[in-house]
Amino acid sequence: MGKFLFYMLFLMFGPLLLYMEGPQIKDDYYLRSDTIIDADISSTGSYCRSKAIVVKMCTFMYRLDGESEEFDYTFLALRSPDTVVIQKGQQSGHLTTTVGQDFFWNRVVTVAIGFLISGFTFYAMISPLLFGRDDEDDDFGNPIPAQWRQSDPSRQADGYEPYASRAHNFGQQSPQGFGRRG
Fold first, then answer.
1. To 10 degrees, the CA torsion angle through 135, 136, 142, 144?
2. Cβ-proximal residues to 178 (8 Å cutoff; 6+ apart), any chain
3. Is 20 within a domain?
4. Fewer CB under 10 Å: which end of the chain, C or N?
5. Which pTM value belongs to this model?
């Protein structure tokens, strides 16, 4: 069950990032062709947090027509934003921030990396189904010795002792070889 949840978490990583960042990336993309001016809107709060040095999560809150609004950004960058100014497109009137424009490509790359992670996870999930799995080979195609295979019926019959039963004589070798009954 743990492996399934692990795969589902990484499988949903790309779509989750697209859901969180997609609409704002689309709006900021269209604003790049517009003349951007500072909006006469005051910010009610803002903060940026860093996770693992390069992951930035920024939130900017403001009031517009009596309602609280906010911009949330998640992106990869080596530096944090210095200042935040709420801006708008002169022709369209859509709102953005200096972070939305200055870190536009960082946000696009972050979503793309999320989809790469999801794609690799999907490949890891279906590759055993597509290519099959040979129990006589390890993950790299090297043959597994018979005494190491779990499904080998001669494992106990040939005198091979499981690791736990030979723990009392760790580092000692019997005359017939390590792990053999004598």
1. 110
2. 166
3. yes
4. N
5. 0.65
